[in-house]
Design a protein that fits this description.
The chain has 220 residues and is α/β, with parallel strands linked by helices. It has a five-stranded parallel beta sheet with strand order 2-6-1-7-8. The longest helix is centred in the C-terminal third of the chain and has 17 residues. The radius of gyration is 17 Å and the shape is globular. Bound molecules: 2'-deoxycytidine-5'-monophosphate.
Length: 220
């Protein structure tokens, strides 16, 4: 247990509301927010931009060796360039699970994530935070929601961004596929840590979930 610092882990599948909720909690508690999914997305962007075959492990690992990923004021930088917007493209969402299951990629990202949490009060969200990255976190939460609800949220988000060449059914299939890869990969799959609080956000607003988490942290 990190007794003199506040370390909060949030895990769960795509679309459960992790990042929106984690950001709000970081603001309320005035602590750092680290989006670990953004790190896997940033490296996926680099792989896709490099035009190498996504199945060519040797080339991917070579690329990994020369990659730097940093967070500054909640912005993500890939090799020194800010890539907040690019990493949210659907092409990244549809390829990131493939990259995130590579052992060496995970080792590098986990090392970085642990360094970021070493001296700060943090809330970190991802898939393996409570189980692998920060097993001694003071609080662990596992957010879930039905796959249909998660697809609905993601669809709404894309429509709001002005992306219209995609259907709800397509998004549902994409999310199911990501769940399948993230949950069944060999290295640190998406799992609930035994000591995590489980919150089903299907029928809850963002603020209701935020309040629930804050109440638990403040012991109310
Ligand atoms: O949270 P997100 O949807 O931005 O995450 C993108 C992908 O990265 C997700 O499909 C699984 C992977 N990921 C992971 O394997 N481990 C993490 N700690 C965070 C994300």
């Amino acid at each position: 247990m990190n007794s003199n610092r506040l370390v909060i882990a949030i895990d769960g599948p795509a679309g459960a509301g992790k990042s929106t909720i984690a950001k709000k909690i970081a603001d309320i508690l005035d602590i750092e927010y680290i989006d670990t999914g953004a790190m896997y997305r940033a490296f996926t962007l680099k792989v896709l931009n490099s035009n190498i075959d996504i199945n060519n492990l040797d080339e991917i690992l070579k690329l990994l060796d020369t990659t730097t990923i940093e967070f500054k004021n909640r912005h993500i930088y890939l090799d020194g360039t800010r890539v907040d917007e690019e990493i949210r493209n659907n092409i990244i969402s549809n390829n990131v699970s493939q990259i995130a299951k590579i052992k060496e990629v995970r080792e590098k990202m986990v090392e970085l994530q642990q360094k970021l949490a070493i001296s700060n009060n943090v809330i970190m969200d991802g898939r393996d935070i409570g189980t692998v990255v920060l097993p001694n976190a003071n609080y662990k939460f596992f957010l879930t929601a039905s796959v249909e609800e998660r697809a609905k949220r993601r669809y709404k988000e894309l429509i709001q961004k002005g992306i219209s060449n995609i259907t709800y059914e397509q998004i549902l299939e994409e999310i199911k596929k990501r769940d399948e890869i993230d949950s069944n990969r060999e290295v640190s799959p998406l799992r609930k840590s035994q000591d995590a609080y489980v919150i089903d956000t299907t029928n809850k607003t963002i603020d209701e979930t935020v309040q629930e988490i804050i109440s638990i942290i403040e012991g109310r």
